[in-house]
Amino acid sequence: MASMLLNSVRSCSVNSSWGVRFGARALSTTSQFQAQVQTKSKKTLARPGVKNIVLVEGVRTPFLLSGTTYVDLMPHDLARAALQGLLDRTGLPKDAVDYIVYGTVIQEVKTSNVAREAALTAGFCDKIPCHTVTMACISSNQAMTTACGLIAAGQYDAVIAGGVEFLSDVPIRHSRKMRKIMLSLNKAKTVGQKMGLISKIRMGHFAPELPAVAEFSTAETMGHSADRLAAAFGVSRMEQDEYAMRSHSLAKQAQDKGLLEDIVPFKVPGRDIVFKDNGIRPSSMEQMAKLKPAFIRPHGTVTAANSSFITDGASAVLIMSEEKALAMGFKPKAYLRDFVYVSQDPKDQLLMGPTYATPKVLERAGLSMNDIDVFEVHEAFAGQIMANLKAMESDWFAQTYLGRKTKVGAPPMEKLNLWGGSLSLGHPFGATGCRLVTAAALRLQKEGGQYGLVTACAAGGQGHAMLVEAYPQ
Fold first, then answer.
1. Does the keyword Nucleus apply (predicted)?
2. Which domains does the chain have, with CATH numbers?
């Protein structure tokens, strides 16, 4: 996220009552790549009288650094590629889909309902309803849970959910003063009226309004918030760089081993076929240490190397009632069980969603952290991840902010993001949620686990968590 945010840096202020309470968290960059999960006899999360909802398949385009191979496309092109990849992977008849819902964040005004435009260009029947949702970095999470709700309510049996983000080309607007004059010009009827309006234009009116990943309520960029959060929880620059190096190293291993099975090749018009993510770049602590702070200078700890990068990409998942999936001959990958959404203070706790959402979803399901075999947690910044891990390990934070007597407990590193995460694979804002859920389902299959927990933070101080249960092999 670094390059879009550098122009909005403000002074750093730290919640000092937090900073003294959180020590360093040991982090090994040589974590065991394939967790040896001991398959235990665990209860299923199926509930009597509640319809089983399954993830049949999940795919995504390769996630690419913005400004690279996808640069001449539009958002619906990427979403269309994901939809077509899902159809090719499953063999699903296009008329078997009841509804399509997509998530996105920075919208292209020409295709504001990108779900509809992508579906039409992918060849779906024009009788299939489609809509687009936005909830910052958990937009495709919202798309998936919307699909689950439609199926649970008995409205539909087969829904495609997905997400897309295309940051190679973002809307750049005239200033508001300039827009007001231009709109008035459009209504002016006489030459005199038009000349009068034109005479009001000043050079400053031509300054464009550039989009930024910033909070409207606080005027703070997300990178600035991440820097303050890292300082508040005592997360050092070394811890952040070490975690980022771990993410890239694990992603490279997963890529080399062919574990990123959700990727579908994409023939970019006028260019070569894209087969893999291009942002995975393992480095060294020495190289990372040379980078200057990206947001709070000169003493900040968040850099381009320990932040997720500006990414283009799209994802799609097929969600069905279990009964319908089996009737059509599909073998589901996982059950989609319980989920929660949370919100908190967007200034001091902007990126703390995982800490708030995790205990809530576990309590709803009657599970503990020890019951979870696979964790997939969104990596917006290494400092954000480490701050959440420290908050989860803190009795004080649990008692002060969560209303709990004891700490939540942090996910063990040998179960966390073992195929890399958003820091290395990339983070197309609207598409990441589907990647997380599909990765959790695939890892449960590979590692022999039963429960996966997916969780993410989002702008506005919001967050999400979902429980995924392995489908019987």
1. no
2. 53-170+219-470 (3.40.47.10), 175-209 (no CATH)
Tell me the per-residue pLDDT of 389-427, one tens digit each, with 9 for 90 and over. 999 999 999 999 999 999 999 999 999 999 999 999 999
Among the listed residues 342, 375, 358, 347, the one whose alpha carbon sits nearest the alpha carbon of residue 462: 342
Taking the C-alpha atoms of residue 463 and residue 473, their distance in angstroms, rounded to an integer, is 31
Spatial separation of the C-alpha atoms in residues 430 and 464, rounded to whole Å = 14
Q: Which of 468, 370, 365 is CA-nearest to residue 415?
A: 370
d(CA 94, CA 61): 19
**Integer Cα distance of 61 and 157 in angstroms:** 25
Dist. CA 158–CA 388, nearest whole Å? 35
Place of tokens 């799209």: 314
pTM score > 0.85 for this model? yes
Instruction: Fill in the DSSP letter of residue 371.
Output: G
The CA-to-CA distance between both ends of the chain, in Å, stands at 39
Peptide bond into 298 cis (omega under 30): yes
- Residue 194, C-beta contacts closer than 8 angstroms, at least 6 positions apart: 185, 188
The one-letter code for the residue type at 210 is L
Residue in 130, 137, 148, 434 annotated catalytic: 137
- Is 148 catalytic? The answer is no
Residue 178, Cα to own-chain centre: how many angstroms? Answer: 35
> What type of residue is 36?
Q
Q: How far apart are CA 112 and CA 429, in angstroms?
A: 16
Closest-CA residue to 412 (of 43, 42, 31, 39): 31
C-alpha–C-alpha distance, residues 356 and 387, integer Å: 13
What string of DSSP letters covers 62-98?
PPEETTSTTTT--HHHHHHHHHHHHHHHH---GGG--
Among 130, 148, 434, 457, which one carries the catalytic annotation? 457
Q: Would you call the peptide bond into 282 cis, given omega within 30 degrees of 0 as the criterion?
A: no
| Residue 448 C-alpha from the chain's centroid | 25
The predicted-structure confidence for 229-288, as pLDDT tens digits, reads as follows 999 999 999 999 999 999 999 999 999 999 999 999 999 999 999 999 999 999 999 999
